[in-house]
Design goal:
Strand content: 15-25%
CATH class of the largest domain: Mainly Alpha
CATH architecture of the largest domain: Orthogonal Bundle
Strand order of the largest sheet: 1-2-3-5-4
Number of helices: 11
CATH superfamily of the largest domain: Transferase(Phosphotransferase) domain 1
Largest sheet: 5 strands, antiparallel
Distance between the termini: 29 Å
Helix content: 25-40%
Shape: globular
Structural class: alpha+beta
Low-confidence stretches: none
Order of helices and strands: HEEEHEEEHHEEEEHHHHEEHEHH
Number of domains: 3
């Protein structure tokens, strides 16, 4: 399927493609640059031309909801600006920041204060996001503030009726769940009360609709993890890691998922180890018929970035695998880590979507 002629013309003239961020049965999402009246701007493109026919009606519905919500919040500074929209594509502004599960704002009370302010602005605009339980839909900007993204499930209201109030309450409750995880000591008594009281809508959803949702997303669409790796990341990666760790030259392994223009979703293995021809040796080990499909990329490094507890910082490796290396700097904790990460970035294997942002 091709984009409508008018959409294709605008994108050909004004869009510069960059990194592929996501591809599923509802849309393709890319990062790049878009020419505006004020010059080129960092932007995100959502397009429907590669959506399969059987998911097209729902894809159109989600696309329409996002476009309507982005139009309503223009100029509010709580989410991406809608730069252009056509029949099967839209371009929204790029927010310089990383997702909550990558930023991990431990004890950052100011971040959650701005997040709550963002929800108040959404309510004033008559918008309920409806998908804020996902950490990847909350961004932490380089300015330290909270931003909301991915409005495909957003609902727009002209009046603040009972349904609006219920959905707005659920948006707040989901935000407070994130605050409880990253800044629990900052929760107020009233916020704890909200956390302990689900709405009727939420209770009904948990008893009925969520079971259907999980069955469809995990069974039909293979949505099994927040990184987008599907069953390969959930089921195959642990097996692959175990096989690679059996090699005496391997000290540790981390596998992350990345969007791939040909395969849809790829796996990227970062291997901490050394020795001659280690990558070739690992690929030979993983070539057995009983082993899951090997990672698309295997990168050997003498050391991998780790946190204070010694755990591999997969949030940094995730950005490297996705060629979002310009977003790593705010996550760096020490000069030695910066040097280590820079060496890994310079040797990265996923060069198909390499782009100067």
């Amino acid at each position: 399927m091709r984009l409508p002629e008018d959409d294709a013309k605008v994108l050909a003239e004004r869009w510069s493609a960059g990194a592929l961020l996501k591809r599923d049965v509802f849309s393709t999402v890319e990062r790049g640059r878009f020419r505006t009246a004020d010059g080129d701007a960092g932007a995100i493109l959502r397009r429907l031309d590669q959506v399969p026919w059987w998911s097209r009606p729902l894809a159109n519905h989600l696309f329409s909801r996002e476009r309507k919500a982005l139009t309503a919040i223009r100029g509010m500074g709580v989410g991406p600006e809608l730069l252009w929209s056509g029949r099967d594509a839209l371009v929204r502004g790029f927010i310089d920041g990383v997702a909550l599960h990558l930023a991990k704002p431990e004890g950052d009370v100011a971040y959650f204060r701005t997040a709550k302010a963002a929800l108040r602005k959404l309510r004033r605009a008559g918008i309920c996001h409806n998908d804020l339980a996902k950490e990847q839909n909350w961004l932490r900007g380089t300015d330290g503030k909270a931003y909301v993204t991915d409005f495909q499930l957003a609902a727009s209201f002209r009046r603040r009726g009972k349904l609006f109030r219920i959905l707005a309450y659920e948006d707040l409750r989901h935000l407070l769940k994130h605050k409880r995880r990253y800044a629990p000591s900052a929760l107020t008594p009233q916020e704890r009360k909200v956390l302990g009281r689900k709405s009727i809508f939420s209770r009904l959803w948990l008893m009925t609709g969520k079971k259907v949702y999980v069955a469809i997303t995990r069974g039909l669409f293979n949505f099994t993890d927040r990184e987008g790796g599907g069953k390969r990341l959930v089921n195959d990666a642990p097996v692959l890691i175990a096989r690679m760790k059996a090699n005496p030259s391997v000290r540790d392994v981390a596998i992350v998922a990345f969007a791939d223009r040909r395969a849809g979703v790829g796996l990227y293995a970062f291997v901490e180890g050394g020795g001659d021809n280690l990558e070739a040796s690992l690929r030979s080990t993983l070539a057995g018929s009983k082993t899951p499909h090997p990672p698309e990329h295997i990168q050997i490094a003498p050391a991998l970035p780790r946190d204070r507890e010694g755990a591999i910082r997969k949030e940094i490796l995730q950005l490297i695998a996705m060629n979002q290396v310009d977003l790593i700097e705010p996550l760096i904790q020490a000069p030695a880590e910066r040097e280590l990460v820079q060496a890994i970035c310079d040797a990265r294997k996923n060069l198909r979507d390499r782009f100067s942002f």
